[in-house]
Design brief:
There is one protein chain. It is globular and about 100 Å long. The chain folds into four domains: about 160 residues, Rossmann fold (3-Layer(aba) Sandwich); about 180 residues, 3-Layer(aba) Sandwich (Rossmann fold); about 170 residues, Gcn5-related N-acetyltransferase (GNAT) (Aminopeptidase, 3-Layer(aba) Sandwich), CATH 3.40.630; about 90 residues, no CATH class. It has about 725 residues and is α/β, with parallel strands linked by helices. The chain contains 29 helices and 22 strands. The chain is about 45% helix and about 20% strand.
């Protein structure tokens, strides 16, 4: 009993220091230790509501999504059965200054942590049995003064904690005040000057949004729309908004989704898809947690509204803001060249002396920047200086430089890269990491999942819809969606991610990497190389350029781009079974594609439709006779109406498909227009608007000119 009292006393003293310094504390303990319950009782006695997470629970990502944007004083994460890096990153970001994160481990992992305590600064105490990302979290955090460890009723903490001086908050508050003025200026200043805010967690961006809205509506009536992936993501924004407007609005009689004021002000929450569907009027539109929103939706907002604030987390659980800014910035500046970009650096929720953020970012590689390319690439480099290499998981874990290089490339190429992707990189045994190295520097990376070679029983169960296997996307797709049970026995390489250093774009590096992957696949006796990706025009063009064939569009859409998912494959040899399956897939895809253009693929990007039509479709059409050709010629010279020859023009297009591939003769605009007109069957009013023509007559004249060009092709 005396030892328990001493333990609680030590914890209380340590917690008091944490609160005084306004930093966050991390306590590492064994789940079986009675301290865990004692700490919860202590929190309850202090009136602190604590959160508990078991990393083994299913659907936990939904729970963490709901909590993003909230503020918490105490969090218990049970990592005794499995460690979830997403949960750790997300919950760390919601912890306020003076708060404590309790990380509960199993006995083996805790023993490792305890032994690491003495050798943390040596950085050489590795253990192959522990989750490699948990090992990184422990190794980096156990060097901190604000990290404590509990073992056998003893509370181990740093004596250096008391040496930290309490911090004044003036610089942070000044930066936040400046941001509030910038937000207000979007609504009151010149139009078409959106504001993009990026900040790490705890910087007060959501609070600034709430305060700015409150100050705006206090001055005059406004119609303001706020949006985010989920309403719960806006809890901090609404908290500060309602605190500022407590004299003007009674929340008991108001729905937080639709706040109405006596001066005709309305502040309304709307999901992004609802905004796009209804296009409501707004003096100001604010999108928070924008990195978790499909780029396609963000672009639509930027084109249809003149006063917009986009706000996103720079490095966090829900996606990486660096990649978000890189990918979205170009499109945004195209429609709004006066866009303003700003960043919050100073934390509000905790002191600048807080160590938990810095060490966790190092452990999870959340703030990892790309290394600039130091040399100029020449044609000689491809054959003599660029090397292809497979990096093992052990080598990645033990080589911090390579791990940083690989993960930074993935982060910048795929803006919703999450901490769990780092775990997959270091844990999943069937996942290969392939890189191109030039002058010692990693310039490109691909993640390749090895799939297939399933048993007869597994194949039958999957084909019958009785079983789904994790990490077997390609063979399962062929069996489940096409009924090709025999496809499960084949071996596959699925390229899950491919990323090239931005300074090496448009130099053929990605295609060069794919060539080397295919050569490697042959040495491993792989039957099919494939991929599944969001069907944006640039990505579809890349896979088409590398001679991959399109086999299936998914019904769902990619969460980051908003584009349809698309599967591609490429046989690695000419064996009968592989070729038979390949030919069936191509035939089935080509038959269904035209039909689906009028249903589930009606919103497919036009350049993607054109790419598939020109490069994969094989049309079997009856040859146009002399009378039909004469009718088309009459239409071309304005002697026939479009409705009299539309079906003939479609046949002419299909018969000239080979000639249309000549980019020296046919422009992308001409091809897209014909595809839009003949396959999408868009009316002239829609076509005129899409192609910036003055009206129906100019549109009709354009069709006539293209018909004449087709006739002479």
């Amino acid at each position: 009993m005396a030892s328990t009292s001493l333990l609680i006393s030590d914890f209380s003293q340590w917690q008091s220091k944490i609160c005084t310094l306004n930093v966050r504390g991390l306590v590492v303990a064994s789940k079986s230790d009675e301290f865990c319950q004692l700490a919860k009782d202590q929190m309850s006695a202090q009136g602190v509501t604590y959160l508990t997470f078991d990393c083994k629970q299913e659907n936990l990502s939904t729970k963490t999504d709901d909590i993003l944007g909230s503020e918490n004083k105490a969090i218990f994460i049970d990592a005794s059965r499995v460690f979830d890096a997403n949960i750790f990153a997300a919950m760390t970001g919601t912890l306020v200054g003076g708060g404590v994160l309790f990380l509960l481990l199993n006995k083996n992992d805790f023993c490792y942590a305890f032994n690491l305590l003495d050798s943390a600064k040596k950085n050489d105490n590795k253990n192959d049995q522990i989750d490699p990302v948990l090992e990184r979290v422990l190794r980096f955090n156990l060097q901190n003064n604000s990290t404590a460890l509990v073992n056998n009723h003893l509370f181990y903490s740093s004596n250096s904690l008391g040496l930290i001086e309490p911090q004044e908050n003036f610089p942070q508050l000044t930066q936040q005040s400046q941001l509030i003025e910038k937000i207000k200026r979007v609504a009151t200043g010149h139009s078409n000057r959106p504001l993009v805010i990026t900040a790490n967690r705890g910087r007060g961006k959501s609070a600034a949004l709430g305060i700015a809205i409150a100050q705006l509506v206090s001055q005059r009536p406004y119609q303001i729309i706020v949006s985010a992936p989920k309403l719960k993501n806006l809890s901090s924004l609404y908290k500060h908004l309602l605190e500022e407007l407590s004299d003007l609005v009674d929340i008991k009689t108001n729905n937080v989704k639709r706040l109405l004021f006596p001066n005709n002000t309305k502040i309304e929450f709307l999901p992004l898809d609802k905004i796009i569907q209804t296009c409501p009027f707004a003096n100001l539109i604010i999108i928070d947690e924008a990195a978790a929103v499909p780029v396609k939706q963000l672009i639509w907002i930027s084109k249809n509204y003149n006063r917009i604030v986009f706000s996103t987390t720079s490095d966090g659980y829900e996606g990486n803001g660096k990649g978000f800014e890189i990918r979205f910035k170009k499109s945004l500046l195209a429609s709004k060249p006066s866009t303003i970009f700003t960043q919050l650096d100073h934390p509000i929720r905790w002191s600048k002396h807080d160590e938990l953020e810095k060490s966790s970012y190092k452990a999870l590689l959340l703030n990892n920047d790309l290394t600039p390319i130091k040399h100029e690439l020449t044609s000689h480099s491809f054959t003599n200086e660029i090397s292809f290499e497979l990096i093992t998981k052990k080598d990645l874990a033990n080589n911090e430089s390579d791990l940083k290089a690989v993960f930074s490339l993935l982060t910048n190429a795929h803006y919703q890269t999450r901490p769990a992707d780092l775990q997959s990189l270091l844990i999943q045994q069937k996942l290969h990491t392939a890189v191109l190295r030039w002058k010692g520097q990693v310039i490109a990376v691909a993640l390749i999942n090895q799939e297939g070679q399933l048993t007869s029983l597994q194949c039958q169960q999957i084909a019958d819809g009785e079983q789904r296997l994790k990490g077997e996307l390609l063979p399962q797709s062929l069996m489940l969606h096409f009924g090709l049970t025999q496809a499960g026995s084949l071996s596959y390489f699925r390229v899950m991610r491919i990323a090239v250093h931005p300074e090496m774009h448009n130099k053929g590096i990605g295609s060069f990497l794919m060539e080397r992957i295919e050569q490697y696949a042959l040495t491993k006796q792989i039957d099919i190389v494939g991929a599944s990706f969001a069907a944006t025009s640039d990505v579809v063009s890349f896979w088409n350029k590398n001679n991959f064939s399109f086999i299936r569009f998914g019904r769902g859409k990619d969460s980051s781009s908003g584009a349809h998912s698309l599967e591609v494959i490429k046989p690695m040899h000419n064996k009968n079974q592989v070729l038979m399956i390949y030919e069936i897939l191509i035939e089935r895809f080509n038959e269904s594609f035209i039909f689906k253009l009028h249903s589930e693929l009606k919103d497919l990007e036009l350049t993607v439709v054109s790419c598939i039509l020109l490069n994969q479709m094989i049309f079997s059409v009856r040859k146009l006779n002399s009378n039909e050709l004469e009718e088309l010629a009459r239409f071309s010279s304005a002697k026939r109406g479009f409705s009299m020859v539309d079906h003939l023009l479609l046949r002419l297009f299909k018969s000239r498909i080979t000639q249309l591939r000549n980019i020296d003769v046919w422009s992308n605009t001409e091809i897209n227009f014909l595809v839009d007109c003949l396959f999408r069957q868009s009316d002239f009013k829609t076509l005129a608007k899409s192609y910036k023509l003055t009206g129906k007559q100019q549109c009709l004249n354009y069709v006539r000119n293209l018909t004449g060009k087709l006739l002479t092709a």
